[in-house]
């Protein structure tokens, strides 16, 4: 295997005294892993930061072998690591990607969306500017992994009007009329997920609760505890920022 591609670093794990195993997202080849010799050196530590963009070179004699990886920095988001809220968002978006996607399977829509989310976190003057994009990324990832929600029509009436709830069991939309007696058991369906545009904080937190429920149930069941903790940390920091 010999792959040269621009990649978004999604996870870095120490390996041995000096090396590191890196998982990086590419547009054409999906998520790839590689061993970086000297990954903990003074020269490479600032490069091997999740959310940074690198030119990556993966080389292995067989597809089963862990590739050797060389990296050259293309774009650094390291300055954002000093901002607690932005750092938590970058940490969660990349950790979710690294822990969820299978190796070496292309997901071009996810790559584009992830790049957009990270860019929004970097560029937006306020968290509300990128929180909407993050919720949409989580929803897209659920769909790409085969756990997409059916938000087009009511599960009870088949109507496309006044969809204000989502069933936590089926993942299908529920209209205001059909769900009025079960509101305490349903998840709110924020309008920005169907209509686009911006959203207020109440709608954003409704969106985070919606995607968080299905991520926990369908995606993060057997994942490492620190992955789920990264999302909890982000949500708590968002709540403190709003308060």
Question: What are the low-pLDDT stretches, counting only 5+ consecutive residues below 50?
Answer: none
Strand order of the largest sheet: 1-2-3-5-4
State the helicity in percent bands.
25-40%
- In what range is the share of β-strand residues? 15-25%
Total of helices = 7
| Helix/strand class | alpha+beta
The mean pLDDT is: 94
**How many strands, what sense, and barrel or not for the largest sheet?**
5 strands, mixed, barrel
The global form is elongated
Straight-line N-to-C gap: 51 Å
Q: For the CA atoms, what is the radius of gyration?
A: 19 Å
- How do the helices and strands follow one another from N- to C-terminus? EEEEEHHHEEEHEHHH
Query: Count the strands?
Result: 9
What is the assembly state of the chains in this entry?
Answer: single chain
Walk me through the structure:
With 243 residues, the chain is of the alpha+beta class. It is built from seven helices and nine strands; from the N terminus they run βββββαααβββαβααα. A five-stranded mixed beta barrel has the order 1-2-3-5-4. Strands 6-8-7-9 form a four-stranded mixed β-sheet. Strand 2 (19-26) and strand 3 (30-36) form a beta hairpin. Helix 1 (84-100) packs antiparallel against helix 2, helix 1 (84-100) packs antiparallel against helix 7 (225-242) and helix 3 packs parallel to helix 6 (201-219). The longest helix has 19 residues, at 201-219. The model has no long low-confidence stretch (mean pLDDT 94).
């Amino acid at each position: 295997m010999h792959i040269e591609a621009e990649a978004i670093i999604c996870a870095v794990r120490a390996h041995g005294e000096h090396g590191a195993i890196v998982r990086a997202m590419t547009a054409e080849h999906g998520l790839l892993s590689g061993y970086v010799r000297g990954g903990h050196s003074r020269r490479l530590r600032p490069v091997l930061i999740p959310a940074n963009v690198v030119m990556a070179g993966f080389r292995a004699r067989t597809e089963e072998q862990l590739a050797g990886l060389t990296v050259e920095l293309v774009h650094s988001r390291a300055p954002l690591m000093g901002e607690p809220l932005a750092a938590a968002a970058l940490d969660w978006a990349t950790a979710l990607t690294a822990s969820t996607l299978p190796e070496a399977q292309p997901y071009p829509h996810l790559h584009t969306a992830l790049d957009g989310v990270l860019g929004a976190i970097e560029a937006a003057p306020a968290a509300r500017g990128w929180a909407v994009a993050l919720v949409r990324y989580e929803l897209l990832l659920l769909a790409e992994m085969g756990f997409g929600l059916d938000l087009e029509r009511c599960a009870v009436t088949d109507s496309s009007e006044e969809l204000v709830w989502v069933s936590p069991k089926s993942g299908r939309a529920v209209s205001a009329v059909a769900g009025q007696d079960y509101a305490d058991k349903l998840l709110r369906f924020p309008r920005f997920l169907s209509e686009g545009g911006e959203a207020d904080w109440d709608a954003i937190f409704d969106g985070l609760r919606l995607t968080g429920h299905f991520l926990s149930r369908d995606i993060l069941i057997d994942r490492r505890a620190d992955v789920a903790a990264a999302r909890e940390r982000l949500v708590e920091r968002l709540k403190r920022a709003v308060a």
